[in-house]
UniProtKB/TrEMBL annotation:
It catalyses: L-serine(in) = L-serine(out). InterPro entries: Mtc. One of its GO terms (molecular function) is monoatomic ion transmembrane transporter activity. GO terms for biological process: serine import into mitochondrion. Keywords: Amino-acid transport, Membrane, Mitochondrion, Transmembrane, Transmembrane helix, Transport. This is Sidoreflexin. Belongs to the sideroflexin family. It is found in: Mitochondrion membrane. Pfam families: SFXNs. It is a multi-pass membrane protein.
Amino acid sequence: MSGELSLNINIKEPRWDQGTFMGRAKHFFMVTDPRTVLLSSETLDEARDIVESYRAGIIKPGLTEDELWRAKYVYDSAFHPDTGEKMFVIGRMSAQVPMNMTITGCMLTFYRTTPAVVFWQWVNQSFNAVVNYTNRSGDAPITVNQLGAAYVSATTGAVVTALSLKALASRLPPIVSRFVPFAAVAAANCINIPFMRQRELKFGIPITDENGNRLGESANAAQQAIAQVVVSRIGMAVPAMAIPPVIMNALEKKAFMKRFPVLNAPVQVALVGLCLVFATPLCCALFPQKSSMSVSGLEKELQERIRETSPGTTRVYFNKGL
């Protein structure tokens, strides 16, 4: 019965303790579950209605606690936490595994020629631009010019890094060449994410006290948030771009791979997918989604304002983005 479900369940927060790595990992295994990409708009809207009704104190008849949490995670997978807008499907974290396994698998397979390197780095950075924009922190809009500058800068950085390392690696053992895409992706992440979120660095992201009361916007908080996201993104790429090359280097010497070279790309994509299923949620879990910092780490003017309006506040909280 609807009366059996308590209204005291805090669905504004994840189901598991975000103060521990395991709690965050369980949370992100749900958030990055690729099956939610296949859900219809009607299912997503139904989950939103359940969540928003519950927050308003209205419980759908017959709703169980597990169904409520399921609706909450479906809602979180498709709607932006700050703006509430439905996110573009390939920009959602639940699309990370299927999209990245395809793109990364192809980058690791087709790395021997310059046109292939340029094409797949361009595809990867185009995808990253969509993801970074979709998962930006805060509710501040980004202009078309800022979006274009970030996209061009990251793509150029990735291509230049990949081609430079490819030329350098040509004089080294073949196995070294296989790691060129990873170095390019790592360099591009360091460029793409800050550029895509440059408005946050300039104007700040919303910060709140522990009760969710908004205290202002902080660029210092944005710097911490973006640094954490860069580390997580590079961490996600490590297993997927470091393990398959070693395995493929050994497999390509086998008779069956020489006999059926067409298997190269599918096997590589499958290996990358296996790595990403675990690496994506585990690296998202490296830092709490609701990140925090001491008031003393904020801008001086903001510190003074918080001490005047909320003297008991010593730490502030913010969505770091993904």
